[in-house]
Every structure is written in C-alpha cells, then in structure tokens.
Design brief:
globular; about 190 residues; about 45% strand; 3 helices; mainly beta
Length: about 190
C-alpha cells in the first residue's frame, strides 16, 4: 500500500480528535472517534464519523490493519451507516442501545485483492470481488456521558456482529456444511463522542 496514502488516511481519522474554534468549518469536524478490535475490518481499526438524523444514525469511516503474525499484513478501509432504533435511557448519564443495525462496505488494499478477477478466469466465473465486501452489521452498546466541561462528551463501549455478502451467499447455498458461527464475525470497540 502506498505509504503516503496510508498517512493521509490516518491524519484524516486523527483529525476528529483535535479541538477547533473555527465556526464556519465546525460542521466538518467529526462527532466521534472509534477504536475497534476485530469485526471484519482489521485486527485493530481506528475511525471517525458523524451523528446524523437527529442522533439516530451514524456515518463513519475506519482504517483497519492486520499485522503479519495475525494473517497480514492487510490494510482495510471501510465506511458504515448504522441506524439506532431502540435507545433505553436508565439515567441522565447513561444510554443503552439494544440493537443498532446497519451496512458497511470495506475495501482491502493489496496486490492479491481486485475489483476484477485475473484474465485466466472467464467473465462471470466468480460473482464476487476479492477487494470489496458489503456487510450487514448489528451493534449493542452502553454510553456513559461525561461532565459537560470535558472534551470527550461521552464514551460508548460496544459489541458488533457482522457478516458479509460472500459469507451469507455461501451459507445459504451450503446450509448443511456451514453453521451461523462460520459466517458471523464479532468485534468490540470504544467510541468517543467529541
């Protein structure tokens, strides 16, 4: 992967952690930053994003990395949309999101990942792209609100379950050979509302 491109991605993600006083560009500053372990977007990933639809949904981008000892090196860029239909507020300082749902698209960089299969395969031989995956995701989370004077307004711990297009099609074509545990991936993370 191009080292310069990787640095640009990381700087974009980290920009969400920087405070700013510029009012005209305030809408550009992300609403949150995330750190996630596993979950189909890298062994470890970092990201940033925006709360939308009156804080009932999130748009985010994440960069994930898998180190060589864990099966890499792999570099993954993903974008997600997650809707938050059920929010329980047991106190003024805590929210529980029982089941958020969404979709994610991820792209794997590298010579072994392609949008088109090499010429040795006839057109249409494989329907999927090795570089691009579409994921269905669900998330359960607990959010703790910080005192108003803090830079970080809230901290959310979450568990995510997801599966991608290739896993789902493979499962439905091979239900006798595959189980749900073969196609569902788990991730855990922390989201900081800025």
């Amino acid at each position: 992967m191009n080292d310069k491109f990787l640095r640009i991605i990381i700087l974009f993600i980290l920009s969400g952690l920087l405070p700013t006083k510029a009012q005209p560009l305030k809408w550009l500053i992300p609403d949150f930053a995330t750190v996630q372990y596993a979950g189909s977007i890298g062994w470890l990933s970092v990201g940033t994003g925006y709360d939308i639809l009156k804080d009932r949904a999130r748009l985010s981008v994440q960069y994930g990395y898998v180190p060589e000892p864990k099966g890499g090196p792999l570099h993954i860029l993903s974008g997600s949309f997650v809707y938050e239909p059920f929010i329980i507020k047991p106190s003024t300082k805590m929210n529980i999101n029982v089941l958020d749902t969404g979709i994610r698209f991820s792209y794997q960089f590298g010579e072994d990942f392609h949008f088109r299969w090499p010429g040795r395969y006839p057109e249409g031989y494989y329907w999927w792209k090795t570089a691009l995956r579409a994921h269905l995701i669900t998330e359960t989370s607990i959010t703790w609100k910080s005192p108003e004077s803090n830079f970080i307004k809230a901290t959310t711990g979450y568990i995510e379950l997801n599966s991608n297009d290739l896993y789902l099609v493979s499962y439905f074509l091979n239900t006798k050979s595959l189980s749900p545990s073969d196609i569902i991936k788990i991730g855990a993370g922390i989201r900081f509302k800025l």
